[in-house]
């Protein structure tokens, strides 16, 4: 059989070399990039120095947290929003003696423990239904589910499913472990366990229920060995920032969440900017097979123009003084050390002599961009008209040794191009948008870019 692919022959290769040599700028770029790397050469000095870390609205949320070597950004960012609410309810600051082990935080390890346990159950039940329906094991869906199982990523709705069911605990009652800070080995073992369970289901469909029970028990055992036994209750006492001592007695994590944290967070909805025209603005979008808690809220969003997302985020911070959870594609045009994002922060096209001209829709459609990181907005610079946004202050979860003590600055144009999701109170939306949540969602396949996890 003759291949239809045209080989790269010697004549064409010589032509490429000649074209490279004829452009002097290529040699300058090569000399620089081979010595210091592309980002150092392409860095836009004028853009960087003008992207100031000043904001007309700024929210103090204490010392930036660190997710270490894990993909728990969605849990860290949602708990960063929650800890802001808790600090106000408890009248404490970030370094309160409420937490003698350091700045006040809510346990990310606790949230991850129950997320992983629930995901074991969710995956087993989901795959069992597919096996019983005779889904081919080599179908695109099964291959995707097998490859995507037991990662660390998630969504705001998935985080709320955990907090609604299991509550939250201050970090000192369930601190980090070696495996919570570096999840790869634990995830590998859980992934292997679930792959094996699927193989057993396919081989023995009549024994599926027993396979689920046995695997769930093993998953629980693995998680507890890696992360420790989570508390079911704890003695809660603290000293507020005015020096007043408080004792609340023994409470459960669920009681702690309802008493000090919730403040309406459970009623938030997610807005997304899906730029593909076949998914109309004002319509609800759902992702098949995406979730963590069986029986929990489905992962659904309302597709809206990005300007609606900006307006809601601005209003939530400026009018209610609350941080805003969001998801973005964090890698393009990012200076991690300086803590900056702007669409022209790096002039790669100038260095390479290439015009990178894809818009947001094309980047999504052709696999160049998708949500991969969640953070919290904790400030915004608003123009004198009270509505136009210039730049955004971002609380990350990569520690305080980078950026402005861990806080990043995002240009407004970068928001338009690379932010995909925000979580806001449903009450903030127009009547039209609120009613849209009552409609049936447009269901997208599990591998759709809008299902990408932070």
TrEMBL record:
GO terms for molecular function: cysteine-type aminopeptidase activity. This is Aminopeptidase. Belongs to the peptidase C1 family. The active site is at 73, 373, 396. InterPro entries: Papain-like_cys_pep_sf, Pept_cys_AS, Peptidase_C1B. Gene3D superfamilies: Cysteine proteinases. The keyword Hydrolase applies. Signal peptide: none annotated. PANTHER family: BLEOMYCIN HYDROLASE (PTHR10363:SF2). GO terms for cellular component: cytoplasm. Keywords: Aminopeptidase, Hydrolase, Protease, Thiol protease. It holds the Pfam family Peptidase_C1_2. It comes from the Bacteria. One of its GO terms (biological process) is response to toxic substance.
């Amino acid at each position: 059989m003759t291949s239809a692919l045209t080989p790269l022959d010697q004549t064409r290769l010589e032509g490429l070399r000649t074209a490279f040599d004829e452009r002097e700028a290529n040699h300058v770029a090569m000399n620089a990039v081979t010595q210091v790397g592309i980002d150092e050469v392409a860095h836009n000095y004028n853009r960087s120095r003008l992207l100031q870390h000043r904001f007309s609205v700024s929210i103090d949320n204490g010392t930036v947290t660190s997710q270490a070597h894990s993909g728990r950004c969605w849990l860290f960012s949602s708990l960063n929003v929650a800890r802001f609410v808790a600090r106000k309810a408890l009248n404490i600051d970030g370094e309160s003696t409420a937490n003698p082990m350091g700045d006040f935080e809510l346990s990310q390890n606790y949230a991850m423990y129950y997320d992983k346990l629930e995901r074991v159950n969710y995956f087993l039940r989901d795959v069992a239904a597919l096996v019983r329906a005779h889904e081919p094991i080599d179908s695109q869906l099964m291959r995707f589910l097998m490859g995507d199982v037991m990662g660390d990523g998630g969504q705001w709705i998935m985080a709320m499913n955990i907090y609604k069911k299991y509550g939250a605990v201050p970090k000192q009652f369930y601190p980090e472990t070696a495996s919570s800070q570096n999840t790869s080995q634990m995830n590998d073992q859980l992934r292997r366990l679930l792959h094996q369970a699927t193989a057993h289901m396919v081989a023995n469909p009549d024994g599926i229920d027993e396979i689920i029970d046995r695997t769930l028990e093993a998953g629980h055992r693995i998680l507890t060995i890696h992360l420790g036994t989570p508390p079911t209750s704890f003695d809660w006492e603290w000293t507020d920032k005015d020096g007043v001592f408080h004792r609340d007695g023994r409470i459960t994590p669920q009681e702690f969440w309802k008493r000090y944290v919730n403040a309406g967070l459970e009623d938030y909805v997610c807005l997304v900017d899906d730029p593909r025209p076949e998914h109309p603005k004002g319509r609800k979008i759902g992702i098949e097979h995406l979730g963590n808690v069986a029986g929990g809220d489905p992962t659904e969003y309302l597709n809206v123009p990005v300007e609606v997302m900006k307006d809601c985020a601005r209003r939530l911070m400026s009018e209610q003084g609350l941080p805003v959870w969001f998801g973005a594609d964090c890698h393009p045009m990012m200076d991690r050390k300086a803590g900056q994002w702007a669409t022209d922060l790096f002039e790669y096209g100038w260095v390479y002599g290439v015009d990178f001209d894809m818009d947001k829709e094309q980047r999504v459609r052709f696999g160049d961009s998708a949500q991969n990181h969640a953070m919290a907005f904790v400030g915004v610079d608003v123009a004198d008209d009270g509505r136009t946004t210039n730049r955004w202050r971002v609380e990350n979860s990569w520690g305080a040794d980078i950026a402005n003590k861990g806080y990043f600055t995002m240009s407004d144009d970068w928001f338009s191009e690379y932010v995909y999701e925000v979580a806001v109170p449903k009450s903030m939306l127009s009547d039209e948008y609120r009613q849209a949540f009552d409609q049936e969602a447009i269901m997208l396949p599990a591998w759709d870019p809008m299902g990408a996890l932070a």
